[in-house]
Design brief:
Elements lengths: L6 E2 L8 E2 L5 E7 L6 H11 L20 H6 L6 E7 L2 E7 L7 H10 L2 E7 L9 H12 L4 E6 L8 H12 L7 E3 L1 E5 L10 E6 L4 E4 L6 E3 L6 H17 L5 H7 L6 H14 L3 E5 L13 H11 L11 E2 L18 E10 L3 E10 L1 E2 L4 E6 L13 E6 L3 E5 L2 E5 L2 E2 L3 E5 L9 E4 L5 E2 L9 E7 L2 H17 L4 E4 L6 E5 L2 H13 L5 E4 L6 E4 L3 E9 L6 E11 L6 E5 L8 H17 L10 E9 L7 H17 L3 E15 L3 H10 L3 E8 L3 E9 L6 H8 L5 E11 L2 H11 L7
Parallel strand pairs: 3-5, 3-6, 6-7, 7-13, 8-13, 33-34
Antiparallel strand pairs: 1-2, 4-5, 9-10, 10-11, 11-12, 14-25, 15-16, 15-24, 16-23, 17-22, 18-19, 18-24, 20-21, 20-23, 26-28, 26-29, 27-28, 30-35, 31-32, 32-34, 35-37, 35-38, 36-37
């Protein structure tokens, strides 16, 4: 697997350093909330000597969950890095949140890592693996990222390692279930009063050795005579799975011919298959017992990471371009090459300000280097949620994070991760490169936030800080989108779910000192005339001095949707002087923008100026603008004003089992299903047109309806007439009055 030098462990509670990419392993932990990722990171840190005592999630005392929001909620809400040293390697453990609302943090962890540990809980996964975990597995499979599976919580009653191995093979094995096989089998102690047998050790299938942890120390011993036979079937299947992935085509013939394949050869083939991403071993782990120095299975996991997971030298580098979008050769993981690095996470510290977690793909990053910072502001769909930015900046202090503490570094080589304080206005996803030869890394994909949260400053003191606080939140988290809606005047923060909303509001309060109030999100409505109407605007005032005189008569008629406002001049005989016809149009358009019945902009009408009167002295531009507005208002009072609502094109991707409930739910939202398409993986894409007012909380409702397996996109299609009963309800809810619909 390459060199295993150049890694130097720090003291307990410290952080190791690496001098070469061959000594680095970047591993992301993936799994649903509650599966035990953070506890596993703590156990690995204890075994590696990075901490003297493992903290507990329940106590808010783990290295990973150091943020006060995480400690209050007792769950991870952000990506965290815990570096440890083992067998001459620096292992960067990237702990990710398991809740679907924080999938942006998971995507950042996948970007920074070269391999993944998928953590599944025997207590949680009764029938299948969580949808977000399967989606992450498929994402890793697309790029060939090596993956291993860790089963946790086998110390819980009514759990079975055999059942979990079967579930993992069904969910992760695809067409080849033999690509997902256990390396170790659990050893259970005597049953307790509740009928549950505790986990006391492991049996290595290749080594045929028992790894006994019952004394608190890891001890190797041969299996008892009665244990040999149960191991044989599992061992034979594992060997066949390894040989099937071997580059030595003669190995299978030799094995089937009865030859006993050397364990060293099997281990080497296993490591190569894992590194290629074609074989996925299943292991189990449990935290250390009170007073013990090692958790069960943690040594085996660390050995797999250092020996079976690839170095950054073996990773396919991300695509890079010039800042203008021109082609550039892919970066090479060489500490002596030109710098190519990416900000994978941005956070704010109350003492040092903005802190950027950086993955170096090429070159070496050093303090005080002058680099080019470039951010495209684009997501994977090509949209620009924030403007493109470029700057020449000087790199500040480099540190290696370990929970709340930061340990100073003198450099960060290609393949490694480090934190940089005060990196200008760097945002998540920005690229660092040489000032004289800048490049831009292609962005990773993030889901589109589709749950709106309208906010307003709580008081005067918060108004000045609100815009800055929101801008910082969006710079840190690319799955947040900020919108200033010109139609409703609301400030809207688009999020991925309710938990995402809650954390965003909490960060505004605790991190930036901004008190905000959430308010109902208002969908931008429109108004139009339901039929033809006429109006007369008379603006005549004489109160001494220069007076005001303007009279105009108009006719209003509805037009097809999307037409806008047409103004037609049919005045004859000069009843309204030519210079004031434009004034009438200005007044009509200004009143249309302000709205008539409920304050929503008027659209899709033709306004025809038929007649009017003017005074040679008292008529003016302002007078005829006022008259035009009055005429439109009078026409509205004599007609039925109809509310128009935006309609969205909605595309919902769900497993086939949920197509019926999804279509029924869309129909209940006044939606029209326009078609379905079969997609890969036993899923169906449902296309529908749904009023926007009915899909405000669809991001939450779809997750509940499909048990977290569905996702959707939406795009504005057009405005349509709102049914009268719905329009009346909306007017009452918004306090718009009830002029009749």
């Amino acid at each position: 697997m390459g060199e295993k030098t150049h890694a130097h462990p720090g003291a307990a509670g410290g952080a190791p350093t690496a001098g070469h990419p061959s000594a680095v392993r970047n591993v992301v932990l993936v799994g649903p909330s509650g599966s035990g990722k953070t506890t596993l990171v703590e156990a690995l840190a204890l075994t590696a000597g990075a901490v003297n005592r493992a903290g507990r999630v329940e106590d808010g005392a783990t290295v990973s969950d150091y943020d006060e929001i995480e400690q209050r909620r007792r769950r991870s809400v952000q990506l965290s890095l815990v570096p440890v040293a083992w067998d001459g390697c620096k292992i960067n453990l990237l702990d990710t949140p398991g809740y679907a609302d924080f999938v942006g943090e998971l995507r950042a962890g996948l970007r920074a890592a070269d391999a993944a540990l998928f953590v599944v809980s025997a207590a949680q996964e009764a029938e299948s693996v969580a949808a977000t975990t399967r989606a992450a597995w498929e994402e890793c499979a697309l790029v060939g990222m090596p993956r291993a599976i860790v089963v946790t919580h086998l110390d819980t009653a009514r759990t079975s390692f055999d059942d979990m191995t079967r579930i993992c093979a069904e969910n992760f094995g695809g067409e080849d279930p033999d690509a997902v096989l256990p390396l170790y089998l659990p050893v259970l102690g005597p049953e307790g009063a509740d009928g549950h047998a505790p986990l006391t050790g492991l049996t290595g299938l290749l080594s045929r050795r028992i790894l006994d942890y019952s004394s608190g120390e890891r001890a190797e011993e041969p299996p008892a005579p009665g244990q040999e036979e149960p191991l044989r079937a599992a061992r034979d299947r594992l060997i066949e799975g390894i040989i099937a992935e071997s580059e030595d085509e003669s190995l299978m013939d030799r094995y089937l011919g009865g030859e006993d394949i050397d364990v060293t050869t099997l281990v080497a083939d296993l490591e190569r298959a894992v590194a290629r991403g074609s074989f996925h071993p299943v292991l189990t782990a449990a935290p250390a017992a009170e007073g013990a120095r090692q958790g069960i299975g943690t040594v085996e996991l660390l050995e797999l990471i250092t020996r079976g997971f690839p170095t950054p030298l073996e990773r396919t580098p991300p695509v890079v371009t010039t800042p203008a979008g021109g082609p550039r050769p892919a970066p090479v993981c060489d500490p002596d090459g030109p710098l190519v690095a990416e900000v994978v996470k941005t956070s704010s510290d109350p003492y040092v300000g903005r802190v950027s977690l950086v993955r170096v793909f090429s070159g070496t990053l050093r303090p005080d280097d002058s680099v080019h910072l470039c951010g495209h502001g684009l997501d994977a769909t090509g949209r620009a949620p924030r403007p493109c930015h470029e700057a020449e900046i000087r790199v500040g202090a480099l540190t290696s994070p370990f929970g709340r503490r930061q340990h100073a570094l003198d450099r960060c080589v290609a393949g490694d991760l480090a934190c940089v304080a005060r990196l200008g206005e760097a945002e998540t996803g920005d690229t660092l490169s040489p000032a004289d030869d800048p490049v831009l890394i292609e962005p990773w994909s993030t889901p589109d936030p589709l749950l709106p949260l309208a906010v307003r400053a709580h008081g005067k003191a918060d108004e000045d800080k609100l815009s800055q606080g929101l801008a910082r939140l969006v710079a840190e988290d690319p799955t947040l989108r900020l919108e200033q809606n010109p139609d409703t005047g609301q400030v809207v923060l688009w999020c991925l779910g309710e938990a995402h909303q809650e954390v965003a509001l909490e960060r505004l309060r605790s991190r930036y000192g901004v008190q905000v109030d959430a308010e109902p999100h208002r969908v931008p409505l429109r108004e139009t005339f339901a039929g033809r109407a006429a109006g007369r605007g008379r603006h005549v005032k004489q109160s001494g001095g220069h007076g005001q005189f303007a009279i105009c008569e108009i006719e209003v008629e509805p037009l097809p949707p999307g037409t806008g406002i047409e103004f037609v001049d049919k005045v004859v005989g000069g009843a309204v002087p030519r210079q004031f016809i434009v004034s009438v149009e200005k007044g009509v358009r200004a009143q249309a923008a302000r709205g008539l019945a409920a304050g929503h902009p008027l659209v899709d009408v033709r306004v025809t100026l038929l007649d009017g009167k003017a005074h040679s002295v008292d008529s003016s531009d302002a007078a005829f603008q006022t008259a035009g507005a009055l005429a439109l208002r009078e026409a509205a009072s004599a007609s039925r004003i109809q509310l128009l609502e935006p309609v969205c094109e909605v595309s919902v991707l769900v497993p086939d089992d949920y197509v019926g409930p999804v279509m029924s739910d869309l129909s209940g939202r006044r939606g029209r299903v326009v078609g379905t398409e079969q997609s890969a993986g036993g899923r169906t894409l449902v296309r529908a047109e749904v009023p926007e007012i009915e899909v405000g909380r669809y991001a939450v409702d779809l997750r509940s309806l499909s048990h977290g397996t569905g996702r959707f996109d939406r795009a504005y299609a057009r405005h349509e007439a709102m049914p009268p009963q719905v329009a009346d309800r909306v007017r009452v809810e918004r306090g718009d009055g009830s002029p009749g619909a």
